[in-house]
Amino acid sequence: MQYTISTKAPGAITETMLGRFRKEFQKQPVHKITMNALTRNPLANLAVDCNIVNDFDFVFSNEVEIAAEPQDQERAGTCWLFADLNWLRFLAGRNLNFKAFDFSQNYHEFFDKLEKSNWFLEKMIEFRKRDMLDRHLVHLLHKPIGDGGDWLYTANCIAKYGLVPKAVMPDTFNLKNSKFLNERVGYKCRQGALIIRELEKKGRPVSEMRAAKETIMGEIFNLLAMFLGLPPERFSWSYWDDGAKPKEDGKAKGKKKKKKKDEKKPKPKKKFHRLRNITPRDFTKKYLKVNPDDYVTLLNLPADGYPFDQPYILEFSQNTVGASDMVFLNVAIEELRSAVIKSLKAGEPVLYSSEAGPGTDANRGFYHHRLFDYENMFNMKFPMTKAERITYFHEECNHLQLFIGVDLKDGKPVKWKLENSWGKQYGKNGLFMLSDRWFDEYVFTILIHRKFVPGRVLKLFKKTPKLIPIGGPFS
Q: Does the CA dihedral 378-383-384-385 come out positive or negative?
């Protein structure tokens, strides 16, 4: 075959076309100014609108008090895991009377990876007769055990394995640098897939395939233990609580004692606690007390072919064999906003997912819809709507965080406060804020208690869920 190329083929770039592009570029002096600046500087430094920066502040009318240390996922794609445990540590901290309490992400990571591996290998048994070019098989083999996940993954692991305090199974290097762990475990998953398909070629029964799978799973368990440490079956743990608030002295009920000008407020009396030989499941059952059935997931997916007021499930959005699928109810953005405000007013933080990139200044801790003035920067329009950006895959749901505050002006939200998992070196000691319009444009899901959702919306969950297939939005 002789190599050929023709500029006369329909749709090819021609010399005439290039000449016209060049002349149009050179006509505008601003293009040269931008080129000179942008070829030597990061875009974010040049396009940021200083008026937005000067007008954005960390003052909120409604906040949830967060006392625990900011978390840092570092070089792992486990924002969902950190966000989930940031939320759950708040709930457990109230029951423990210990606001600075932390769960072990390392413990959770161990069992999430173990369950993901088992789920993958079971799918390989299910798809053992499919062609190697089958789109489902290709999708699974491409990434057997990625870092990604959602609230359902956490709920599954808690139900089977419970959780432990961070001090019981502290962070490891590989928790926050998951590349090598994923590569080795991924190798074993694919090796298991190969073995299963070879057994199928030989006409061996599924029972033999499951026996081979169990051998591979034993090796995966060993790998996870070497990368992350061996999870405890039982543990002991001690802590000082935050103390009981001192009672007010007064001669009559409701009458407070008058304080002297320089009189110091008495410190709360703290109490020492020691838990002995407790299992992770018993610890979680006693101090967390979260029922997954009390929470629902609201989705804002204004894409073509995905109408509102309809439940959906994501294909292959699972980490555990035998667990329920997560159901998302697609509703207008106003439903998400209203539910989050109600929850924050009641003192309960809210898990949410979004696109992480647009309008982000990680150093200042800003998410703002007009933070970067790209239209004036490049002298062109960027007009696509949220629905169009999702439909044409310009945007994806790729980050989970925690709403912990909202600033209401005349009853309407102006900006939102959130807890991130990028460490205290970013934002304001790990905390960020986002504009209300950013909420509209880039927030996609919330996990919310049923009590904050109108009954008319909850009734919609009774509809039969439709599938968002692999290759579709957020899949």
A: positive
Q: Coil, helix or strand for 103? A: strand
User: DSSP string spanning 277-325?
Assistant: EE-HHHHHHHHT---GGGEEEEE----TT--SSEEEEETT--SSTTPPP
* Measured distance CA(423)–CA(284) in Å, rounded: 26
Q: CB neighbours of 351 closer than 8 A, spacing ≥ 6?
A: 83, 84, 87, 151, 400, 401, 402, 403, 446, 447
Output the CA angle 399-405-409, nearest 5 degrees.
Answer: 120
Mean predicted lDDT score pLDDT of the chain: 94
Residue 404 pLDDT > 60, yes or no? Answer: yes
The Cα 121–Cα 190 span in angstroms is: 8
Taking the CA atoms of residue 276, residue 278, residue 284 and residue 288 in that order, the dihedral angle to the nearest 10 degrees is -20
Q: Which amino acid appears at position 288 of this protein?
A: L
Q: What is the mean pLDDT of residues 257-265?
A: 63
Question: Are the C-beta atoms of residues 348 and 449 closer than 8 Å to each other?
Answer: yes
Alpha helices in 39-78 (DSSP H): 43-47, 50-55
Task: Supply 104's token pair.
Answer: 């072990």
Would you list the DSSP string of 17-28? Answer: HHHHHHHHHHH-
68-82, 263-277, 322-336: least confident range:
263-277
Q: Helix, strand, coil: what percent of the chain each, to 5?
A: 40, 15, 40
By DSSP bridging, strand 235-240 and strand 295-299 are unpaired
* 89: helix, strand or coil: helix
Residue 265: DSSP 8-state:
P
pLDDT tens digits for 198-249? 999 999 999 999 999 999 999 999 999 999 999 999 999 999 999 986 555 4
Which pLDDT value is given to residue 249? Answer: 47
169 and 231 Cβ atoms separated by less than 8 Å: yes
Question: H-helix or E-strand containing 99?
Answer: none
How far does Cα 56 stand from its chain's mean position?
A: 25
Q: Higher model confidence: residue 276 or residue 260?
A: 276
d(CA 116, CA 110): 10
Phi, then psi, of 298 in degrees rounded to 5: -100, 135
- With beta carbons less than 8 A apart as the criterion, state whether 314 and 328 touch: yes
Task: Give kind and range of the element (H or E) at residue 353.
Answer: strand 350-354
pTM of the model: 0.93
Nearest-5° Cα angle at 433, 427 to 436: 160
